[in-house]
Specification:
The chain is an alpha+beta fold. The chain has a domain at 1-85 and 107-214 and 249-265. The protein is 41% helix and 11% strand. The protein has helices at residues 7-20, 34-45, 54-57, 65-68, 87-95, 111-130, 146-152, 199-203, 221-227, 234-240, 249-253, 279-283, 287-293, 303-316, 322-329, 337-351; strands at residues 25-29, 74-81, 101-102, 135-138, 157-158, 164-165, 173-180, 209-211, 214-215, 243-245. The strands form four sheets. The protein has a four-stranded antiparallel β-sheet with strand order 1-2-7-4, sandwiched between helices. A two-stranded parallel ribbon has the order 3-10. Strands 5-6 form a two-stranded antiparallel sheet. Helix 1 (7-20) packs antiparallel against helix 6 and helix 14 packs parallel to helix 16 (337-351). It starts with 6 loop residues before the first helix and ends with a helix. It is found in: Cytoplasm. Residues 182-214 form the 4Fe-4S ferredoxin-type domain. [4Fe-4S] cluster 1 binds at residues 194, 197, 200, 254.
């Protein structure tokens, strides 16, 4: 049996172990999310969640951690940086209409599994030191308000684009949590430093940041290319450009990301050349190639048909070269009406050049 340890000493050890496991920061928060709950209620009432019905499905269990995991007293919040390349290179990729742009968080290994395993190892270390305790690990896998909790834990503040910003590291990082019954001392919440800046609001291609700290997901390119199951509204297709999975524009515009660092985590390095692939090359994949190439990545979750839907839109926004028209024409009679409709739209666009 290990010797008793004071909560403050244990908290320091947890932060030390977290850094050893590859996290850049660990913070500890209490469970008071009353303000965040009010904002969530307003957001849902505005219909900004679109088809993401799961955002309302769990009621107050999302904003009241002890209702989700009875006995929870504290939340251990962790962040891990994932930026795989220079932000200047990302800008070049977005400006090249022939290239496919994938949100940089999705280029490497699926972060859900990687972070969950590291957090489990952190929980194991705690248990080795103090014995059995109550806990549950989360990585974007349950009704958890990870950004408000991270802000309370001192990991950063929620910016006007609704992403978390750290004053020393920007916003290119993942979050994960351990709900626990341990009476650990809490950290000081982060302070908002957005000030008068509206760079993220002004840069958003679709105007999805409808007001500071308010995101209408129905307009967001990440929602349109990942969460939306059906057709992408025609009025938004032109604005998507070459973004086929997610969008990083608001982070690229944020001045705090001048402090962002490249990731040291090998699992977050780009796979299968997806950081430089062309639209035509990816549109030529059959389903077997899509499934094998995206295995173990976050991209896999959208499935093959949404993958082709997104690529068709991007090709419609590309230069109408002979090769682009040939690629689209090859799928003009696709048996899937979703794919066929977006291909026909893209071909119609190329006819206008």
């Amino acid at each position: 049996m290990s010797e008793p340890i004071m909560p403050a000493e244990l908290a320091d050890l947890i932060k030390h172990w977290g850094r050893e496991l590859g996290f850049q920061q660990i913070g500890i928060a209490d469970l008071d999310l009353a303000e965040a709950e009010k904002r969530l209620t307003h957001w849902l009432a505005s219909g900004y969640q679109g088809e993401m019905g799961y955002m309302a499905r769990h009621g107050t269990r999302r904003s009241r951690p002890a209702e989700l995991v009875p006995g929870t007293r504290r939340v251990i919040s962790a962040r891990m940086e994932y930026l795989p390349e220079r932000q200047e290179d990302m800008q070049h990729a977005i400006r090249d209409p022939a290239r496919a742009f994938v949100s940089r968080y999705a280029l490497g290994r699926d972060y859900h599994k990687l972070l969950r395993r590291r957090l489990q190892r952190l929980a194991d270390r705690i248990q080795d030191r103090i014995g059995p305790f109550g806990y549950r690990v989360f990585v974007d896998s349950a009704p958890v308000m990870e950004k408000p909790l991270a802000a309370k834990a001192g990991l950063g503040w929620i910016g006007k684009h609704t992403n978390l910003i750290n004053p020393r590291a920007g916003s290119w990082f993942f979050l994960g949590e351990i709900y626990t019954d341990l009476p650990l001392p809490v950290d000081e919440p982060a302070v908002d430093h957005c000030g008068r800046c509206r760079a993220c609001i002004d840069i958003c291609p679709t105007g999805a940041i409808v007001a500071p700290y308010q995101l209408d997901a129905r307009l967001c390119i990440s929602y349109l290319t990942i969460e939306l199951n059906g057709p992408i509204p025609e009025t938004l297709r032109l604005l998507i450009g070459n973004r086929i999975y997610g969008c990083d524009d608001c982070q690229l515009a944020c001045p705090w990301n001048r402090f962002a660092r490249l990731t040291k985590e090998p699992g977050f390095q780009p796979r299968a050349g997806l950081d430089s692939a062309t639209l035509i090359a990816l549109f030529a994949w059959d389903e077997a190639t899509f499934l094998s190439t995206t295995e173990g990545t976050a991209i896999r979750r959208i499935g093959y048909r949404r993958w082709l839907r997104n690529l068709a839109v991007a090709l419609g926004n590309s230069h109408a070269t002979t090769a682009v028209r040939a690629a689209l024409s090859a799928r003009a009679a696709d048996p899937d009406p979703l794919i066929r409709e977006h291909v026909q739209w893209a071909l119609g666009r190329s006819d206008q050049y």
